[in-house]
Amino acid sequence: MVQLNTGFTLFLSLLVEAVPFLLIGVAFSSLLMFFVDERALIGVLPKNAFLGALSGSLIGLAFPVCECGNVPVARRLLVQGAPTAVSIGFLLAAPVINPVVFWATWVAFRGQPEVVFLRVGFTLIIATLVGWVFSRQPDIGPFLQDSVARSRFRDFNRESGEVKPSAPSALLQGGTFIQGAGDMGAALRIDTPMAQRLVANPALEKTFSQKLTLAAENMVRELRELGAVLILGSAIAATVQVAAPRELILGLGQGMVSSIVAMMVLAAVVSICSTVDSFFALSFASTFTTGSLLAFLIFGPMIDLKNIGLLLTVFKGRAVFYLFALAALMSFACALFVNLFIG
Amino acid sequence: MRSPQLTPAKPTKRRLYWPWRDILDVLAFGAWSAMLFRYWFSGKILLLLHPNYTWLSHSAAFALVGLVALTLFKIFRQMAGPQSGQTKDMLGHVTLMPPNISSALLLGVAIFGLIYTPRAFASQTALQRGISETLSLTRSQPQRFVRAAAPEERTIIDWIRLVNVYPEPDAYAGEPVDVVGFVIHPENWPDEYVMVARFVITCCAADVYPVGLPIKLSAQERSDYPVDSWLRVTGEMTSETLDGRRQLAIAPTNIQQIAEPKNPYEY
């Protein structure tokens, strides 16, 4: 009975601490989704693959979205002709490199500030490197799902910041034209090409009040979805704390390697949102090695069950596997480094 | 983009449309808000969070009220007349669980939170988490150390931090003690010793850890002080050999049974 009380109190405590951050997270991500035009960003990104990956990783500062919101944004980036390095860097880093997550991690790990900085630092390194590796593939097309690849703009004019469809068709085009208004009597197009409108953020064309309504609706939807995942995650954390025998937890959690593997598996399965995952990790802080907590905090936002489903809407299975393998190996290496030399 | 609505022409009477999902959302968020307000006004929030962060939970309670109002407004508009094509899935939002199950889960947990009253952790949790006189590396390591002015003003965690910095127990012999905590009977201690302990919280109840000091009773009267009862102990410090090592212990002059404090944690 005492165990049950402890479990319930733990469970509620995790929820009550995490819900405010979840609210801030979904509010930010909803507002930015409807008010920031990522097309403007693409034009100013550096050309160099490494710098591109780095800046892609840092875009998260302007888009504080957790891992559920960043895949649609990364998809739009890819489709609108952002270099591969930028998109992959963004995909992996955005859930961690943003102010809300930094604050939440700071609140949770006030006692161990190194966790906060190592989390951000390692995520930046891993995302940049993976983005760089992916940029070696000159054309990302074969990695993408067919539907995404088809709608992509490959010919991206850097000087003018203009994007053009990959294969301007000579065939009849749909749209509204003024006959004979352009040079040489060619038709002048007066509306946005259909393809471009389909891939652009559809909300950007709406009025301010419509955007606000949409943002509020999106907020409710995300809160419902992420709140449910948070509840399941908290329930798992509380159950492990109360029900698992202490010897087992300590045996697993104090091992240099076993603790990291355990936390990475947990991160992939629990799928808890990056805004609140630090509170989940916190409940393991007294029994698990610092490196394993970091592995959880770095790897979880990059890849987890929920995220894989989302990634498969953009990338083909093989590319998702590469992403997964690279992220997992590098997170493991970073965590092991911390356990051996810092923790 | 407005798309024309394909509705059956029925001009006589408009069928009332009940947006069940939105209604479920209103109930769920409303219950969450009510739960947060309940913990706030009953003071139970202190059992769950560090006082530095209670304002976050209070603000969340208000924010949820705002969301409820927004959703109610939406329902009202929808019931007044069906709206044109809403952009439900236009952002490619992929969900892990069906929305109705998510809402039901949120609502269920909030109702549970409204009924259930959190309890302070007790000695069993302390024993399971392992009580230490020395703070392990994973715990809060203050970068700045301020020595509490008068010994009798130190709390249990103040004493533990002090011992952590300068572990020689004899250095504190004779200093006056005045601490409040709950009783633990460690299994491997002889009958004339009990431990007076407190949980320390840094963020939320998930990270509380116990600290405690031994009390040397004058006789084998351990049973006079039942497990989990709260005590105020005054006396002076001495050093005793327990668990095969010398450590700080309290030689009490007065032990007073008290009610559980409103805020059972230390910081």
What does it look like?
The complex is a heterodimer of chains A (343) and B (267). Chain A is mainly alpha-helical and 343 residues long. In chain A, 66% of the residues lie in helices and 3% in strands. Chain A has one domain. Chain A has a two-stranded antiparallel ribbon with strand order 1-2. In chain A, a hairpin with a 4-residue loop joins strand 1 and strand 2 (162-164). Chain A is globular. Chain A starts with a helix and ends with a helix. Chain B folds into 2 domains: 20-82 and 96-115; 123-266, Nucleic acid-binding proteins (OB fold (Dihydrolipoamide Acetyltransferase, E2P)). In chain B, strands 1, 2, 3, 4, 5 and 6 form a 6-stranded mixed β-sheet that branches. In chain B, a hairpin with an 8-residue loop joins strand 1 (176-184) and strand 2. Chain B is elongated. Chain B starts with 19 loop residues before the first helix and ends with a strand. The model of chain B is unreliable at 84-93 and 134-138 (pLDDT under 50). The chains are: A mainly alpha (343), B alpha+beta (267). Chains A and B meet through helix 1, helix 4, helix 10 and helix 15 of A and helix 1, helix 2, helix 3, helix 4 and helix 5 of B.
Compact description:
The complex is a heterodimer of chains A (343) and B (267). Chain A has 343 residues and is mainly alpha-helical.
Q: What order do the helices and strands come in, and which of them pair?
A:
The complex is a heterodimer of chains A (343) and B (267).
Chain A: H1 2-35, H2 38-42, H3 49-58, H4 67-79, H5 84-93, H6 99-108, H7 113-135, H8 146-150, E1 155-157, E2 162-164, E3 177-178, E4 188-189, H9 194-199, H10 208-243, H11 246-253, H12 258-270, H13 277-282, H14 290-302, H15 305-311, H16 317-342
Chain B: H1 20-42, H2 45-48, H3 54-80, H4 99-115, H5 123-129, H6 156-165, E1 176-184, E2 193-200, E3 209-216, E4 230-242, E5 245-258, E6 265-266
Helix pairs in contact in B: 1-3, 1-4
Gross CATH architecture of the largest domain in chain B: Beta Barrel
Helix fraction bin of chain A: 55-70%
**Count of DSSP E strands of chain B?**
6
The N- to C-terminal Cα distance of chain A equals 36 Å
What is the number of strand segments of chain A? Answer: 4
Name of the level-1 CATH class of the largest domain in chain B: Mainly Beta
- Mean pLDDT level of chain A: 79
Order of helices and strands of chain A: HHHHHHHHEEEEHHHHHHHH
Kindly report how far apart the N and C termini of chain B lie. Answer: 56 Å
- The helix tally of chain A amounts to 16
User: Would you identify the CATH H-level superfamily of the largest domain in chain B?
Assistant: Nucleic acid-binding proteins
Q: Can you list the strand order of the major beta sheet of chain A? A: 1-2
Transmembrane segments (chain A): 12-36, 48-65, 85-109, 116-134, 226-244, 251-272, 278-299, 320-342
Family (chain A): Belongs to the UPF0718 family.
Protein name (chain A): Putative permease
Subcellular location (chain A): Cell membrane
